[in-house]
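testing teh design pipeline on a random one, pls ignore if ur not involved
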């Protein structure tokens, strides 16, 4: 397994910014999305530390509200950045080789604090796979899937990222041991403003809608398997690079 604390030197492969004066607003938003994410994570960790040291229910309630506010800010910031990325790529998509290991490790590292705050184990499996995709849009897809998995996985659960060979394709999987999705709701989970649990107030229900839109632009398929009470698996199917076709055994991604 890959440690989420590893530093991947070439992570800039999938962190690109638009160029030119006409792209200045987009550059500002991209920079804000990157620069604000870390302080929001620090706030979330600080609230978690404080909550474990308070004794009264009323004090913990104030901390809980603060944690919820930080989570909502983080999610909406990410949705803004994702919407920007979709807009930038809506007219033309140039698919290129994307190495999956640095992508998965970077996403795990960025969500490590959130996972620890919930008591959820978050891991990425090693992979030498490279797919034909757009690195920025693929990152948006996987970030949304990881956020969704963490949201619906309780303390003691696990979220796992990995890859599996599917003939000429690679299935990039996000597996969780969360609450699962009822069969009668599976057909609606990718709709805008749809939430699995409307009793939860956080978020607008845009994460999986962004996933579907980005996957459609890239020509990638999305598969979902879920069992209520046992968890879910979201898989993004992207074509493997031609030099990997037929090479060796597929990477193993499932947890024991």
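output:
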């Amino acid at each position: 397994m890959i440690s989420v604390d590893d530093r991947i030197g070439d992570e800039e492969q999938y962190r690109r910014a638009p160029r030119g004066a006409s792209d200045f607003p987009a550059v500002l938003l991209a920079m804000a999305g990157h620069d604000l994410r870390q302080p929001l994570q620090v706030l979330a960790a600080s609230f978690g530390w404080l909550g474990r040291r308070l004794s009264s229910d009323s004090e913990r309630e104030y901390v809980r509200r603060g944690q919820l506010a930080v989570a909502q800010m983080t999610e909406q910031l990410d949705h803004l950045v994702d919407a920007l990325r979709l807009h930038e790529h809506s007219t033309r998509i140039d698919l290129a080789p994307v190495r999956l290991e640095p992508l998965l490790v970077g996403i795990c590292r960025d969500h490590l604090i959130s996972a620890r705050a919930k008591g959820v184990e978050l891991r990425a499996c090693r992979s030498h796979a490279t797919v034909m995709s757009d690195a920025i849009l693929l990152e948006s897809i996987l970030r949304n899937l990881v956020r969704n998995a963490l949201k619906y996985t309780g303390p003691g659960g696990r979220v796992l990222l990995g890859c599996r060979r599917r003939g000429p394709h690679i299935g990039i999987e996000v597996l969780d041991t969360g609450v699962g999705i009822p069969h009668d709701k599976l057909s609606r989970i990718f709709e805008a403003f749809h939430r699995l649990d409307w009793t939860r107030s956080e978020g607008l229900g845009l994460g999986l809608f962004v996933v579907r839109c980005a996957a459609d632009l890239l020509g990638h398929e999305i598969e979902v398997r879920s069992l209520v009470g046992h968890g879910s698996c979201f898989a993004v199917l992207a074509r493997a690079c031609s030099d990997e076709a037929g090479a060796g055994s597929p990477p193993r991604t499932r947890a024991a």
